[in-house]
Amino acid sequence: YSQTIEVTAVTAPKEFALEQNYPNLFNPTTVISYQLPVSGNVSLKIFDILGKEVAVLVNEVKEAGRYSVQFNASRCASGMYFSRLECNGRIQMNKMTLIK
Question: 84-97: per-residue pLDDT in tens?
Answer without folding.
Answer: 999 999 999 999 99
